[in-house]
């Protein structure tokens, strides 16, 4: 027995030594990679330009800000960041609902039929794509990241339009649990969109709930709420912590129970509350939702073995689609014949386009869970195209053509954070 243990221990030592050598080689590669350092510099320079989502979007969006606020806190005046965060609460509705964002009045140039105004922010206009259910959770996460980066816990006690920020954050979750919640499933609902997108598949009002809307449950919205609940547990006073931890735990349990397909090792796209928008012969469950899966991993829904399996599926899907990178939003794309009018064609925009905004989040999660070599390999196409196209484009077509805003801060933010994670790991393993 002693001899067996000695031999076993020796094998473990050899394995550990080999792994350490491999880590050192990878660490050196990361630390000397000029593409990484150049993209990092480009991302930081973009953060110095302010808070607009991108060159084509002269508005401040919570879902975008959530993904670049950490890098912004390192490159921009934190007092201005604070003001921009507080501005969201001037547009919070009486029921706790949060908007997507806001714009200065002179920048309100599009034909929104339902603009929002606030007596306490008269120089701004608010707006919301009502098909989504991630505005409240995006803002909570952004506030959490700001506090974590700056140590400014005082923002939680700041009074905006007669109520503290912390109470307003609580009220925003109450809105989701009161008005966008399915008691049957213990999960929140939204209109039927492409994974994390804000365009409903039926067409119609496109970004707004209308008579065509089919309410459904998806993994993205609920994973975002699970993350927000965990964030609230860390931001809250002691007497509230157990509530937020309990909400986080229950959401994760219900996501796994109702949305995770253990046999296929993937999330199902939607659970429909009152009928599907698709014909009976269309099998939506064949579609893989890459963005929602990445966010679910961030929320702690999957085990390490499950993460490895979905990562392999994503790589296979990228190959099958001929996509430029792991930023491929979903696979296969929804065929045009099952969609409403004025909705993206297959592999266009949110219907299977390639978005660094979510591919970068998957890279972050691979690093976090120890798949660093795989993350480094998969990050290369996203990093290289930033330099090749001289910008952080919003999304890419299957032939690699860039599209949308050329200065999309969400893309820069997620890549910038991934680079920080690469560098931290490399410095710890060099």
From TrEMBL:
<dbReference type="Pfam" id="PF17167">
    <property type="entry name" value="Glyco_hydro_94"/>
</dbReference>
<dbReference type="InterPro" id="IPR012341">
    <property type="entry name" value="6hp_glycosidase-like_sf"/>
</dbReference>
<keyword id="KW-0328">Glycosyltransferase</keyword>
<feature type="domain" description="Glycosyl hydrolase 94 catalytic">
    <location>
        <begin position="80"/>
        <end position="319"/>
    </location>
</feature>
<keyword id="KW-0808">Transferase</keyword>
<dbReference type="InterPro" id="IPR008928">
    <property type="entry name" value="6-hairpin_glycosidase_sf"/>
</dbReference>
<dbReference type="InterPro" id="IPR033432">
    <property type="entry name" value="GH94_catalytic"/>
</dbReference>
<protein>
    <recommendedName>
        <fullName>Glycosyl hydrolase 94 catalytic domain-containing protein</fullName>
    </recommendedName>
</protein>
């Amino acid at each position: 027995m002693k001899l067996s243990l000695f031999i076993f221990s020796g094998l473990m030592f050899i394995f550990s030594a080999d792994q350490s050598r491999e880590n050192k080689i990878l660490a050196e590669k990361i630390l000397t990679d000029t593409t990484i350092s150049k993209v990092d510099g480009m991302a930081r320079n973009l953060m110095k330009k302010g808070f607009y989502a991108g060159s084509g979007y002269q508005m401040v969006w919570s879902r975008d800000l959530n993904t670049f606020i950490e890098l912004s806190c390192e490159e921009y005046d934190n007092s201005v960041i604070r003001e921009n965060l507080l501005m969201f609460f001037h547009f919070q509705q009486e029921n706790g609902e949060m908007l997507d964002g806001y714009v200065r009045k002179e920048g309100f140039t599009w034909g929104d039929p339902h603009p929002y105004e606030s007596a306490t922010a008269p120089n701004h206009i608010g707006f919301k794509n009502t098909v989504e259910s991630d505005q409240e959770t995006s803002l909570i996460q952004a506030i959490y990241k700001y506090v974590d980066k700056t140590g400014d816990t005082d923002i939680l006690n700041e009074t905006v339009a007669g109520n503290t920020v912390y109470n307003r954050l609580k009220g925003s979750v109450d809105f989701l649990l009161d008005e966008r919640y399915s008691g049957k499933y213990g999960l929140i609902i939204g209109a039927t969109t492409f994974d994390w997108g804000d365009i409903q598949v039926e067409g119609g009002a496109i970004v707004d709930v209308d008579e065509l809307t089919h309410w459904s449950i998806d993994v993205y919205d609920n994973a975002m709420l699970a993350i927000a609940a965990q964030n609230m547990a860390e931001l809250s006073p002691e007497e509230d912590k157990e509530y937020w931890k309990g909400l986080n735990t229950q959401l994760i349990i219900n996501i796994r129970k109702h949305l995770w397909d253990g046999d296929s090792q993937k999330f199902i796209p939607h659970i429909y509350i009152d009928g599907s928008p698709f014909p009976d012969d269309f099998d939506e469950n064949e579609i893989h939702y890459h963005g929602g899966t990445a966010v679910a991993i961030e929320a702690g829904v999957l085990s390490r073995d499950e993460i490895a399996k979905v990562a392999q599926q994503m790589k296979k899907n990228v190959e099958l689609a001929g996509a430029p990178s792991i930023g491929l939003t979903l696979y296969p794309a929804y065929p045009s014949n099952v969609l409403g009018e004025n909705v993206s064609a297959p592999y266009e925009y949110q219907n299977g386009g390639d978005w660094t905004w979510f591919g970068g989040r998957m890279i972050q999660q691979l690093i976090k869970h120890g798949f660093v070599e795989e993350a480094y390999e998969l990050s290369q196409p996203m990093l290289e195209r930033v330099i090749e196209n001289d910008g952080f484009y919003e999304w890419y077509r299957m032939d690699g053509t860039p599209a949308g805003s050329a200065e999309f801060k969400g893309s820069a933010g997620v890549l910038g954070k991934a680079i920080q994670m690469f560098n931290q790991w490399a410095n710890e393993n060099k």
